[in-house]
Amino acid sequence: QAVDLQFYFPVAVGGKAADTIQELTDAYVAQNPDVTIDAVYAGSYQDTVAKAITASRGGNPPQLSVILSADMFTLIDEDLIQPFDDYLTSDEDKKWVEGFYPAFMENSQTGGKTYGIPFQRSTPVLYWNKEAFEAAGLDPEVAPATWDEMVEFGKKLTKKDDSGNVTQWGVRIPSSGFPYWLFQGLAIENGAILANADGNKTNFDDPKVVEALQYLVDLSTKHEVMAPGIIEWGATPKAFFEGQTAMMWTSTGNLTNVRDNAPFKFGVAMLPEKAQRGAPTGGGNFYLFKGASDEQNKAAVKFVQWITAPEQSAKWTIATGYVAPRAETWETDTMKAYAADFPAVLVARDQLDFAKAELATYQNQRVTGIFNDALAAAITGQKDAETALKEAQAQADEILSEYR
Amino acid sequence: MPGAKPSGAGKPIVLATVSRTWGETVAVDGLSIDIPAGSFTALLGPSGCGKSTTLRMIAGLENVSSGRILIGGEDVTGRPSAKRDLAMVFQSYALFPHLNVGENIIFGLKVRRVGRTERDRRLARVADLLGLGQLLERKPGQLSGGQQQRVALGRAIIGEKPICLMDEPLSNLDAKLRHEMRVEIRALQQQLGFTMVYVTHDQVEAITMADQVVLLNGGRLEQVASPRDLYEKPATPFAARFIGTPPMNLFPANAFRKLCTAPDFKLGLRPEAMHLEDGGPVNASVRAVEYLGADVLADCEVAGTGFQVRLPASRAFTPGQSVQLGFSPDDLHVFDADTGRRRDDLISEFGALLRS
Amino acid sequence: MPGAKPSGAGKPIVLATVSRTWGETVAVDGLSIDIPAGSFTALLGPSGCGKSTTLRMIAGLENVSSGRILIGGEDVTGRPSAKRDLAMVFQSYALFPHLNVGENIIFGLKVRRVGRTERDRRLARVADLLGLGQLLERKPGQLSGGQQQRVALGRAIIGEKPICLMDEPLSNLDAKLRHEMRVEIRALQQQLGFTMVYVTHDQVEAITMADQVVLLNGGRLEQVASPRDLYEKPATPFAARFIGTPPMNLFPANAFRKLCTAPDFKLGLRPEAMHLEDGGPVNASVRAVEYLGADVLADCEVAGTGFQVRLPASRAFTPGQSVQLGFSPDDLHVFDADTGRRRDDLISEFGALLRS
Amino acid sequence: MKRGIALKRDWIHGWLLLLPAMVFLFAFTHIPAVTTFLNSFFSTPRGRRPAKFIGLSNYERMLDDPVFWKVLWNNVWFAFGTIPVSVGLAIVMALWVNDRLVGRSFVRMAYFTPTVLPLIAVANIWMFFYTPGFGLVDQITGALFGWPASNYLGNPDTALNAIIVVTVWKEAGFFMIFYLAALQAIPVTLKEAAQIEGAGRWTIFWRITFPLLMPTTLFVCVNAVINSFRLVDHIFILTDGGPDNASALLLFYIYEVAFRFWETAYGATLTVALLVLLSLLAIGQFFFFDRKVHYK
Amino acid sequence: MTGAGFSFDRVLNTFAAWALALLWVLPLAYAIWTAFHPAAYEARFELLAPLTLDNFVKAWDAAPFARYFLNTFLLVSMILAGQFFLGTLAAFAFARFQFPGRNILFTLVLLQLLVMPDILMVENYQTMRMLNLVDTIPAIALPYIASGFGIFLLRQTFMTIPKELDEAARIEGASVLGVLWRVYIPLAKPTYLAYGLVSVSHHWNNFLWPLIVTNSVDTRPVTVGLSIFSAIDSGVEWSVINAATLMTSGPLLIAFLLFQRQFVQSFMRAGIK
Ligand SMILES: Nc1ncnc2c1ncn2[C@@H]1O[C@H](COP(=O)(O)OP(=O)(O)OP(=O)(O)O)[C@@H](O)[C@H]1O
Ligand SMILES: Nc1ncnc2c1ncn2[C@@H]1O[C@H](COP(=O)(O)OP(=O)(O)OP(=O)(O)O)[C@@H](O)[C@H]1O
Ligand SMILES: [Mg+2]
Ligand SMILES: [Mg+2]
After folding, report:
1. In three state form, how does the secondary structure of chain B look?
2. What are phi and psi of B157, to 5 degrees?
3. In angstroms, what is the span from residue B24 Cα to ligand 2's centroid?
4. Do B98 and E271 touch (CB under 8 A)?
5. Which value does ipTM take for this structure?
6. Quick check: CB of B145 below 6 Å from ligand 1?
7. Which of B244, B319, E38, E186 is at 20 to 30 A from C175, Cα to Cα?
8. Which ligand gives the minimal distance to the CA of B201?
9. Residues of E with CB below 8 A from B80's CB?
10. Which of helix, strand or coil describes residue D259?
11. Distance between CA E143 and CA E112 in Å, rounded?
12. Closest C-alpha to B8, from B87, B69, B70
């Protein structure tokens, strides 16, 4: 009797991803006749959580699902997931867990337990338009390495037409939808951590955070190197291709897209530093759902181990642009050949040394929602950075106090 | 229709003190009528007197405010129209705009699942009868008013129901067609033996077709009688003036010097009952003359009372001219001025007095 | 209305070879009519002959397939209705269901921003004229058929336009009201001097009211004439039979032995033109008798040709009875059997022959 | 009495006709809705802490919630921005399209597009239109008037208005369809009668067509009111409620609370508030006007 | 033929109608533009831009669209049939019968207009599981089958149908359902068409509930395939989204083009002349 598994996965980077997951699952099932896996495409990250929670509450949870790493506390809070540890008992298994980049594991473990296994993970990087650099008299091969440099370069790169309308901005840090993520890059660079590892305390009003926010606001108001107002995430790559901006911050998930569509030479660099280099991680982990039998859980864990193994992981990374979460993957021949052909992919990997966990707390969406609103208020000039963050911190404290 | 078997002879209809009111408006007021099975009854009366409402109550389309309605001896007061087994022609035709003429006519047959061949046979006959043969494919919107009315008529007669209600079914037809239809409807009714209740504002129709005429006035029953009786013995001045065109002339009794002792009566004389008679009892002056074709209608005056006379068109009359008119005493009608009732007992007396 | 100044005297209307077709159907076919300013013209003809269509083309509601229409000397063929400055009563009334009676009537005045007091004054008068005083607050859905028709009439006459078109405006009224309305409409028209085009299927209406009658048949012009001429000198057998109730009797000439030499002619005689005459030229047998009130209508037969005679109700006739009838030669009509044209030249000859 | 029987028959017919629809309505709307309502008196169950009865606390929280008041106010503004314009445009479009017009088919198809295109796609397209710099609006205003790039969606002052424009676009085409169907049912003779009376297009419209369209207008208005609280799908893509809730509407906020924050109890509370508000507005509107609208 | 003022009015109206139409069709026009051009031309409108079908190929390959189309077709037919059936009966009851509880029941119907089905998703999922219908097409359809919108719309339409026609049919012996079938439904045809178009396009494009209640390719509608491209982690790819959109809503557009002639045909207006 074969073990039945149901596995939900989201797609956040376009059509190829779904195919690849299906292919991998099929390959696995072909090799292991004792399991059948029903891989269910579940929409965006949002949709996937909604589907998983709805199904669980309706008494029909999946056994396995890929969900945002930042949702870990929410899922624990909802009592929907169980730690992997019970099924990772052998030493081999423990070593396997340690094989993931620590930056990715920060969001996957809490209270000493491992709840998530990194899978489709990403991190933001800086893309720059080499031709625009050249036109502005900058060295096209050198990206800004510090905040100040970014302003300095930006000023050179910002172009206006005769009537004073800007035709090309220096830099673009999108702030729609989930502004906290890219902002977190600035905060980490400034040495601030937004939330503790237990997910029950935030540091929104840390002066370093305020300073980082002030810098972001200044980019458009004081230095005038970035467009004012909220900047749309979805339109950012297009703006970059259209020459509307000479630099952009966005996810490594965009690498393939940029390579295919940028009509000019471009470079990829780590985010510039202030006190230090830094970037948040992002993306989805595997979670093990409650309500399954022991066999199912064991089979699920085996599958997770298989799909994150070097060969499969390499295939996945190449197909989607996500950062392979285990160092060993980068050692495979496939990956090496890929990186040789397209060295930009290595930037994200290297940046992982400085990366920190994505903002994640209990009641995560609500807390980040509050933080997002504060950022938006500051960016659009409705509040100054400090008040906005102070208020956000107060609200977050109120929500999180019951989890301390 | 020859060869078609009556689907059951007519059924009698009884209205027992039926009323219908809308808020303040009393459309029908305690009406009691007996309509014998297989009879042709005409409902007559001025505009707004409640004819349509009465018909609609018989059909079950209008709720009865009080009273009862019996069809074939059964109380049908609360029964829905579909179960009353009758046909009806609506004053506004009520043709189905989405069906063509043929489909409109056979609508009821289809509802009752009459077989296709039978349907076609009957349709052909009805269409032929009504001169609609060429129009069967048209939609009602593409017909003239008279054509629409004929379709409505066709829909009602094709079913050969025991009761047929018609609300002014010929009002939009020309005189010739109307005359033909009158004859056809009457023949059909007699042949099939169904009970007909026929609303009309046209007395010629009422008089030529009906077995009995029900005259309504302001929602109340004025008189029920055979056409001949209604014409010859109107029960009230209202009936007298309503039936006959131009209407009967009514004179206060004291318009005639010889009758000035009887001021409490009204005398009636039909325009066609008076004729030129040198030395006749009525000495009138002509006020105006209206040309009618075969005759002229002279508007005359006697002792301050205007009246009309139908005179042969062969003689020329000029306004102002004075004429002497006579009549036969049998043509005289006498009404009590107070109660409005007919006084047949006085006719010969007054007639003699006048001619004396 | 007394005191109201005509808003401009009537305008003449000219139709120059106007046609209207729908696909195959030819509703109006090369019609040319002259309607003098201030005249009262009646459009008469059998159901579906194109009366309403003609009226609607004059009103500008129907496109003209070919030909031209002139109003007041101007070509208005392509002009929208609103700019033709005329009033119209629709066969189907076309009352606005959301407006009450009063609002329906003054609709046009409001559109033309006539002052409130003037509006109220005119409304009161029209309502009074039409007996609608009590109903001004009602919605059309709450009116009887005749009441609706009167509202439509009111809406047309209140505007005092130079041209007024009416499509069977009295068809749903009872005889008495109809007679009154006829007189009123005619009086109003003469007083205000507007041009009236009046569609009717009722010849009495056409004959009593009109200055000229336009007789249509199958979309074609049959005859234009004054009512008297139309009655007395119908140009064709169709006109002869269409005008007059019951219709004129037509005999093939060889129905009379004395005329069997002239088989190519038709002889016409009106039912009321024949009278009982012992030894009269027509020897007929009675087939049926219809009671009409003042007279009876006898259905007779001579040499296989059926015909009708109006006879006094005072004598009783039984089917099968044989009667001898006479007529005055002046009442004879002669038509060419082939061309259908009237042959006045032959009347005295034939009359003499018959009476000989 | 017999009349009673006639009435009773009406009752039975009425109920029988309604029965199937009501079964489904109850099973999939009303019973779940009642559960939702009851949930508003409990705390949100979180895996380890089951729901407990907390009375009106959720309602108190709602009254104290600044975001609630903000989105409510946004919604009022949104309703005023969308309803009159979209209903007005719908009528005008229906009249045009019902008329004999050069290229009527194309025009009709154009007006109909909002209904056919899925919101996900539409929202993305509008996002492009609004994008600063190279977006269509900026390309056009830049080329025609030399205006600088403007960030319609990223500016709290314009974000909601930008959403209103998209909504009007969507709604007007949608409502037009119902007006078009209703126009078919108006007898032409009435228009003709009005023309004869000298009424121009304008008068005919205001005095005849418009009043006769009232049943449809009532339908459309009730729906427009409801939609003004309901149509939020495009907000997810266009602004995600931002900046700082400037373009969030009540239902959007409910979504956020219920399906992002998974605070189902508070979501239920907000839903109850929304339902009460809408019932007052839409159902009240309906029962107030229905009698006047059908003149029979 | 026409007078000067008249045609001026016409021209003005035509002009305005066209202007609005062009504005309204812009999103569709843009969708077509981008779908047939390489991504580089998403924001540049050059007459001579090269044409391509790559976007469609990419979209088509992303999911088993053939199967999805079949599912969607079954889904919308099921919903439409149910909505027509239940809506017609209920609307008829509300429009022409007097019975106690009428207003309350109608309020309940209107309430359904207000209650967004998505809010009730969790409850409805439970019901579907109880009925053992999860991951079937009926599960997607059932919650939408009784539509307050449809009942309300049809009621409004039925109420405008002249009462006499109803009466004439009843006189002819038609039963309650006979009257409905032979008079009301044919006369409400424009409304049915309008409602059908709207309902079909709404459910054709519905996404969240189908996504949640289904798991397999055999039951999922096209929108699920389409949604793969709307996930925007990597920025919006208008050309592919729009190609996918055109592909999925193409059948709707074509259906509308076919039906619109009927839709504006004046079969009803001729009738009440
Ligand atoms: N829309 C249409 N399509 C096709 N034929 C039509 C249309 N309207 C009218 N007709 C036909 O045109 C002819 C003339 O119609 P019209 O309404 O003018 O007749 P009418 O003389 O007014 O008749 P009635 O006295 O019965 O009202 C009729 O045969 C009618 O069937
Ligand atoms: N729905 C209603 N509400 C109020 N009053 C009404 C309603 N329907 C009819 N009436 C009134 O009831 C009276 C009788 O109407 P009915 O239709 O029976 O008249 P009728 O005799 O058929 O007249 P006509 O010969 O003009 O058709 C009229 O005065 C009419 O105004
Ligand atoms: Mg009547
Ligand atoms: Mg006519």
Report:
1. CCCCCCCCCCCCEEEEEEEEEECCEEEEEEEEEEECCCCEEEEECCCCCCHHHHHHHHHCCCCCCEEEEEECCEECCCCCHHHCCEEEEECCECCCCCCCHHHHHCHHHHHCCCCHHHHHHHHHHHHHHHCCHHHCCCCHHHCCHHHHHHHHHHHHHCCCCCEEEEECCCCCCCHHHHHHHHHHHHHHHHHHCCEEEEEECCHHHHHHHCCEEEEEECCEEEEEECHHHHHHCCCCHHHHHHCCCCCCEEEEHHHCHHHCCCCCEEEEECHHHEEECCCCCEEEEEEEEEECCCEEEEEEEECCEEEEEEEECCCCCCCCCEEEEEECHHHCEEEECCCCCECHHHHHHHHHHHHC
2. -85, -20
3. 13
4. yes
5. 0.83
6. yes
7. B319
8. 2
9. 170
10. helix
11. 11
12. B87
Q: What gap in Å lies between CA C183 and CA B129, rounded to an integer?
A: 36
Strands A166-172 and B25-35: unpaired
Q: Whose CA is nearest to atom 26 of ligand 2?
A: C146
Query: Which of C204, C354, C203, C202 has the alpha carbon at shortest distance from C268?
Result: C354
Identify the residue whose C-alpha is closest to ligand 2 atom 1. C142
3-state class (DSSP) for residue C29 = strand
Which helix H or strand E contains A356, and what residues bound it? strand A355-356
| Any atom of ligand 1 within 6 Å of the Cβ of C24 | no
Q: Would strands B195-200 and C333-336 be described as parallel, antiparallel, or unpaired?
A: unpaired
Q: Give pTM, 2 decimals.
A: 0.85
Nearest Cα to Cα of residue A182 among A115, A116, A241, A254: A254
Strand bridging mode A266-269 / A124-129: antiparallel
- Which tokens go with A337? 């050949």
Best residue in E23, E114, E153, E252 to probe D by mutation, most D CBs within 10 Å?
Answer: E114
Please indicate whether, in this complex, the C-beta atoms of D156 and A382 are within 8 angstroms of each other. Answer: yes
User: Which of E40, E212, E233 minimises the CB distance to A13?
Assistant: E233
The shortest C-alpha distance from D259 to chain A (Å) reads 6
Interface of E with D in 89-148 (CB under 8 A): 89-90, 92-94, 97-103, 105, 107-120, 122-124, 127, 142-143, 145-146, 148
Structure tokens at B21: 């009111």
Q: Which bin fits A251, alpha (ψ -120 to 50), beta or left (φ > 0)?
A: beta
Report the C-alpha gap between C268 and C274 in whole angstroms.
Answer: 11
| The dihedral formed by the CA atoms of A8, A12, A16 and A19, expressed in degrees to the nearest 10 | 0
Instruction: Note whether C100 contacts B: Cβ–Cβ < 8 A.
Output: no
How does pLDDT run across A352-385, given as a tens digit for each residue? 888 888 888 888 888 888 898 899 889 888 888 8
CA of residue C199 to ligand 4 center, whole Å: 8
List chain C residues with CB under 8 Å of D199. 82, 107-108, 111
Q: What is the dihedral of CA E235, E239, E245, E246, to 10 degrees?
A: 170
How confident is the prediction along chain C (356 residues), in pLDDT tens digits per residue? Answer: 333 444 457 899 999 999 999 888 899 999 999 999 989 999 988 888 899 999 999 998 888 999 999 998 899 988 888 888 889 988 888 888 888 999 999 998 888 888 899 999 999 998 988 888 888 998 888 888 888 888 988 998 898 889 999 988 888 777 777 888 888 888 888 888 889 999 988 777 888 888 999 999 989 999 999 988 888 888 898 888 888 777 888 888 777 767 766 667 888 888 888 888 887 778 888 888 877 766 788 888 887 788 888 887 777 778 888 888 888 888 888 888 888 888 888 888 887 777 66
Single-letter amino acid code for the residue at C267: L
Dihedral sign of CA atoms C198, C204, C207, C208 in order: negative
Candidates E239, A363, E238, E117; CA nearest to D237 is E238
Q: Which residues contact C35 (CB under 8 A, 6 or more apart)?
A: C12, C13, C14, C15, C41, C195, C197, C212
The DSSP code for A273 is B
